[in-house]
Write a structure and sequence with these properties.
alpha/beta, 6-stranded antiparallel beta sheet, 6-stranded mixed beta sheet, 20 helices, 57% helix
C-alpha cells in the first residue's frame, strides 16, 4: 500500500506531507484548490514526463517522495527481478527530484532510470483517470481484462502459445529469406564452395596465429636479442670484473673470518647460493647464445604462413577460431543449397506442424476465454445494476479468426452493452458516455478485486457525469472495493466522500503574498463540515450539517454489511 506522499516546491505546493490509510482514502476541496496537483505529483514520482515549469517559482528543484509498504510475496519477487532495493520489512522509498533540464529518480537511495520506475509502478499502483476509462473502448484492453479475469487457467496455455508462435515466426522468416531464384542460389552455392575450400586448404588450427607471431617477433628481433643476452652474460660473468668474479672474491673474504663469528657462516652460505645461481645463469646464457642463429628459411616460412592467415582474417574473421566458425557456417549453407528442395520441404513441413499446434493452442485459449467471458459478463451485469444501470444488458463476445494468429492467440474481444430496454447490444465505443465509462471501469475493478495483485488503486474523475442516486451507488461500490484494496479517490461528490475511511481536504491559502496548496487529514467533525460544504455550497446551515451527518452515518452502516 501507499503509506505516504511528500511533495516540495511543486507548482502551488510549498511543502506538504500526507499519510494514507487502509481502505478508502478520499481527497476533496474547493475547485482550483489543487486536487489535480496531488495526483499529478504521484504520477511524476512514478515516471510521468516532468517539465521545468512545474518547479515552484523561486525554487531550484521540486521533490516528490512516495513510501510503499509491500507484503505480498508475488509483488516482492517481481520487484527483486527488477533488481531494485527493498527494505527487510517490505518498505520501498521512491523519490524523484526535478531540476531545470533534468530529473533524478531514486529507489531506496539508489539512482534508477525512469524506465525502471515505470516498471515498478506497474507492480505497486494502478491509476485510473479519464484516459484509463477511455482505454476500455479499445479491443486490446478488453482482451487484456478478460485474460486477467480468466487468471491462472490461461497462464500455461498462453505461455506455450507464445513459445510456439516465436518458433513459427522464425520458420516463416527462414522461408522468406530463401525466396530466391535458381540463378541466385547457384551463385551463392558457388561462393560458399569457394570459401569453404579456401579456408580448408589453409589447414588452420586454433591458436596457430599466436604461436607464429611469437616466432616471427623472435626472428625479426634476433640481433637485439643476441646483443642483450651477450651483454648480460658478460656483466654477470667471472671475467673482466663481472658480477661472478666479484661474488667469488666476496666468498673468499667472508670465509677467511667465518670461524670467528657463527653469524658469518650464514653470510657465507648466502653468498655461495648467489654464486651457484650466477653459475647456472651463465651456463644457460652461453648455451642460448651458441644456439642463437638466424634461420632465413624458417623466417620465410613463418612470414608466408602469417601472410596467408592475415589474408583469411581480412575476409572471414579476426581470429583463427572465427575463420573456422565461418567455414562451418558456409559448409552448412553449401549443403543446404546442394539439397535445397529437401531443405525447403523440411521447412514447409515444420511450418505446417507449428501452425497446426498453434491452431490447437489458440483453440484451447479461445475456449478458456469463452468460458471466462460468460462468467465475467454475468458478474459485470450484477455489478452494473449495483451502480444504477437498472435495465442493463452486458455481453462479451470472443471472436476467433485463424488469420489473426499471434503470440496471444487469434481472438478479438468486444464488450457490448445496452443500457435501455429494447435497445440492441452495441460496442462500448458506440454507446458509452464518460460517466458510464467511469462506472463500467469501477464495476470491472470490483469484479476483478479478488484477482488483482495491485493493492493501491487511485481514482481520478471517477464521478464524471454522475449525481444523485447513481453517485450513492458508486459510493457503495467504492466502499466494497476498499475492503480488499487501498483506494485513493479525488471527488467533488458528497455521496462518495461520505464513504471515506480516511478523509483529506486540499486547501489553497495565501501566506506572505504567496499562494500555496496543502493537504491535511480531517477529524470526524471536520469531515462532516466538509461534506456540508459540498452539499450546501456557500451557505452551510444546521439543516445541511444535519444532512451531512446523516449521510456519514448511512455510509458507516452500509460499510458494515
Amino acid at each position: 500500500m501507499l503509506v505516504s506522499l511528500y511533495v516540495k516546491n511543486l507548482a502551488l505546493i510549498d511543502e506538504t506531507e500526507v499519510y494514507f490509510g487502509n481502505g478508502l482514502n478520499i481527497l476533496t476541496g474547493e475547485t482550483g484548490a489543487g486536487k489535480s496537483i496531488i495526483i499529478g505529483s504521484v504520477n511524476l514520482a512514478l515516471g510521468a514526463k516532468a517539465e521545468k515549469e512545474m518547479i515552484r517559482t523561486g525554487a531550484d528543484y521540486a521533490l516528490v517522495e512516495l513510501v510503499f509498504q509491500v507484503e505480498k510475496e508475488k509483488q516482492l519477487q517481481k520487484i527483486r527481478e527488477l533488481e531494485l532495493p527493498v527494505e527487510e520489512d517490505g518498505t520501498i522509498i521512491l523519490q524523484r527530484r526535478i531540476m531545470p533540464g533534468k530529473s533524478l529518480c531514486r529507489v531506496g537511495g539508489e539512482t534508477v532510470s525512469v524506465r525502471q520506475v515505470r516498471a515498478l509502478a506497474e507492480i505497486l499502483i494502478d491509476i485510473h483517470g479519464q484516459h484509463e476509462h477511455q482505454s476500455l473502448l479499445k479491443p486490446v484492453k478488453q482482451l487484456e481484462i478478460l485474460d486477467e479475469y480468466a487468471g491462472e487457467e490461461l497462464v500455461l496455455p498462453k505461455k506455450k502459445l507464445k513459445e510456439r508462435y516465436e518458433q513459427y515466426k522464425e520458420v516463416l522468416e527462414q522461408l522468406s529469406a530463401e525466396e530466391v531464384d535458381e540463378e541466385t542460389r547457384k551463385r551463392e552455392a558457388s561462393l560458399a564452395e569457394f570459401e569453404v575450400q579456401e579456408i580448408g586448404q589453409a589447414s588452420l588450427s586454433a591458436g596457430e596465429d599466436e604461436e607464429l607471431e611469437k616466432t616471427y617477433r623472435k626472428l625479426v628481433n634476433g640481433q637485439k636479442i643476441q646483443e642483450a643476452v651477450r651483454a648480460a652474460h658478460q656483466l654477470s660473468g667471472y671475467e673482466n670484473g663481472g658480477a661472478g668474479d666479484a661474488i667469488g672474491r666476496a666468498v673468499r673474504e667472508i670465509r677467511a673470518v667465518a670461524s670467528f663469528d657463527e653469524t658469518l657462516r650464514g653470510f657465507e652460505e648466502q653468498l655461495l647460493d648467489i654464486d651457484s645461481l650466477l653459475n647456472d645463469y651463465n651456463r644457460a646464457a652461453a648455451d642460448y647464445l651458441d644456439g642463437l642463429e638466424f634461420d632465413g628459411e624458417l623466417f620465410a616460412k613463418v612470414e608466408k604462413r602469417l601472410d596467408l592467415i592475415n589474408h583469411l582474417k581480412a575476409k572471414y574473421g579476426s581470429t583463427v577460431e572465427e575463420i573456422l566458425a565461418y567455414q562451418e557456417k558456409m559448409q552448412e549453407k553449401l549443403e543446404k543449397y546442394q539439397n535445397f528442395d529437401a531443405y525447403r520441404q523440411q521447412l514447409l513441413s515444420r511450418e505446417q506442424e507449428l501452425k497446426n499446434e498453434l491452431l490447437r493452442l489458440c483453440a484451447k485459449v479461445s475456449e478458456i476465454r469463452q468460458r471466462g467471458a460468460g462468467k465475467l459478463a454475468k458478474s459485470m451485469k450484477k455489478a452494473l445494476i449495483d451502480l444504477n444501470f437498472m435495465d442493463v444488458a452486458f455481453e462479451i463476445r470472443v471472436m476467433p479468426e485463424e488469420e489473426r494468429i499471434g503470440a496471444g492467440g487469434y481472438d478479438q474481444v468486444d464488450f457490448l452493452i445496452s443500457t435501455n430496454p429494447g435497445e440492441a447490444l452495441r460496442s462500448l465505443s458506440q454507446v458509452a458516455s464518460g460517466g458510464e465509462l467511469s462506472r463500467i471501469m469501477l464495476a470491472l475493478k470490483t469484479v476483478l478485486a479478488d484477482k488483482d495483485e495491485i493493492e493501491t488503486l487511485i481514482f481520478d474523475e471517477i464521478d464524471t457525469g454522475i449525481s444523485g442516486k447513481t453517485a450513492w451507488k458508486v459510493s457503495e461500490k467504492m466502499g466494497i472495493l476498499g475492503k480488499k484494496h487501498q483506494l485513493i479517490c479525488i471527488t467533488h461528490l458528497p455521496q462518495i466522500a461520505a464513504m471515506a475511511d480516511t478523509h483529506f481536504q486540499i486547501e489553497k491559502a495565501v501566506t506572505k503574498d504567496r499562494t500555496a496548496t496543502g493537504i491535511r487529514e480531517l477529524e470526524e467533525e471536520e469531515s462532516i463540515k466538509e461534506l456540508a460544504r459540498m452539499l450546501g455550497g456557500a451557505s452551510i446551515t444546521e439543516t445541511v450539517l444535519s444532512n451531512a451527518k446523516e449521510m456519514k452515518d448511512l455510509a458507516r452502516k452500509t460499510k458494515q454489511y
